[in-house]
Write a structure and sequence with these properties.
- This protein is mainly α and about 425 residues long.
- The chain has 15 helices and 7 strands.
- The termini are far apart.
Length: about 425
Amino acid sequence: MHRSGLAPLISCSHRVASRPMLSAFCERWQQETTTFHLSFGEMTITLDNVASILHIPITGSMISFSQPFWVDDANALLVELLGTTDVEASRETKQCRSPSVQLLWLRDKFSTIMDVSSDDDIEFATRAFLFYLVGCTLFADKSATSVVVVYLELFRDLSMVGSYAWGAACLAYLYRQLTTATRFEVWQLGGYLSLLQAWIYEHFPEMFSSPDLSSDVCWEPYVDHRAEHPFPDIVWFSGCIKCGLVVEPYHPERVLCQFGYIQTIPPRPFAPPQPDRSILLDQYWERWTDHELTDQSRGQRCQYAGSVESVVEYMAWYDRISHRIVQPPQLRSGFTIDARSSLPSHAASTSDTRNVRALILLRHVISGGRQQSLDYFWGALNVATPEPEPTRADPVGGSESNPGDDWPKPFLKYVYQIHFISNLCGSDFHFWTSP
């Protein structure tokens, strides 16, 4: 166990997860940057956090699998590496309806192995325990009851278990699970939630007693413990980390304040390559010193330890690319259908009026997003938009006071749709003045 590097996982898990807290941070997760977009800037879970919280190796070989992996492959792997029978392996994967096994089945089957058992049985039990351990922690799925058999391949040679970058694989897997959980149809979160929860507790120690998170962020929670946990240089690696077929970007340049540096405007996030380019990703990781942030890229250190500092242009840039405040739209906008009468007719081409015209009709869509809200929007638009005249020379004309009064309905619906997207994205499209 100690040679594997996974022994600390036995005693570093929270028994109870705070669902509201995890859900609140999950809502601020951004897939493209793999960071949390908070009101004061970006933060994320870094390799330094993984090494300091879990005490598992973050250097070593990337975790790679042969693809594809089917149920028959899972059955063969169970027979070969765990010593199960074909019938037993097939029954278990059939019950899971996937190339997975239940964690309870693993525990019940191998919990009776003793020191006096045969060497083969002890080897099977050792693989099963390590497989069970990563299934409960690093690679936990949303059900928290099963684990994909493909991870068993990592324990084929027990002498090589300690050579993997378990921390990097855990982080890539958690990044992907956070991305999946942000989707509207997903109700659960997978990955090692104890890692995420511990990260929140360490960086926001006063979050339950103070409403202002920005003033109570602990940017460098390990600065007083570097004697026991030295800062690993691989944290400065800027590229992709992976866990099998899961490939996620890792951007330390976006969270320089977490390392004690002044935050600058970072470069555009890069899209991770396809998983089939596994060899190339492994080579980048093995030569991580060629892909780490240079001293020039890191910039200057903060004047005061543990403080948040950024260049003057950073917050203006951040306001353009993100939403600093997330609130229920009905509390933020305050628009109602009655607000239509307050529109100034002489300012129909101004940006404020464009926003009002769009938000009046889209208020229910923003707050709900369900089918009935969409039906309400189309109904309101049909009432507010007159039918086009049978004959007209200019299809996108209109009166001088209100350029959109007599536009055709399909075109107006298109305008409102795109304008709604522009409001969410923070873009400025001049629909009314330049149709």
